[in-house]
Amino acid sequence: MINHLQDTITLNNGVKMPGFGLGVYKVEDGDVVIHSVKTAIEHGYRSIDTASFYDNETGVGQAIKESGVPREELFITSKVWNDDQGYEQTLQSFETSLKKLGVDYLDLYLIHWPVKDMYKDTWRAMEKLYEDGKIRAIGVSNFHIQHLENLLADCTVKPVINQVEYHPHLTQVELHTFCKRENIQLEAWSPLKRGKLFDDPTIIDIADKHGKTPAQVILRWDLQNDVVTIPKSITEERIIENANIYDFSLTDEEMNKISELNKNDRAGTNPDRYDD
User: Active site residue: 45, 54, 130, 166, which one?
Assistant: First the structure.
């Protein structure tokens, strides 16, 4: 169990990854993202999740440089975007991300979406980058079971992570079970469903009992479900609050009550769309 902000989980290739981090989706490049990342690092975060599509890798890199924390103590994730998929394009896109971030290697590189007839070539490129020592771990994002099965059929390196939309309205039970069986770590994006869960009576009731916020209860639920989570925030108060989830535990009954809120309802795109 993760008991501290800097505690790690061990991925299927032996690499250790913090169980909690900062996401920077839709965080503006420049001062805003620099402030957000530096604030998070200052308050003990060690995992930062970005993507070429977010268009803020330059700011993230600047924040890393200015943080004063040695590069090897940080865990940096980026992703290859849909337009850059395919073998050669992925290799080029990776180098662009590395340059923008101003780092020599990435800790984790993900395929952002399972673009039909593309993602297997993309994966071959990522396997090469991994074998060349430019990435410590490779994984996928937004993959359904069928996409994973297709990839696993002939890959030489197994994905370490599947980063998907995951929250109490979208518990992804079958996918989570499949990933556990295959030793692929599930990671949550949009864990708070963009704030749409904060007025849920069940979550409010549990939060009141623990003297916590609805956001903290949801993030604790992730943690106790063995799901790595990367909530986004640009305010210092919220960045601190999101990580203040290690001093309480949810009971089995509370965990079940939250899981029962599932509606299979997405805030983002269904990955099936990329199979058209």
Answer: 54
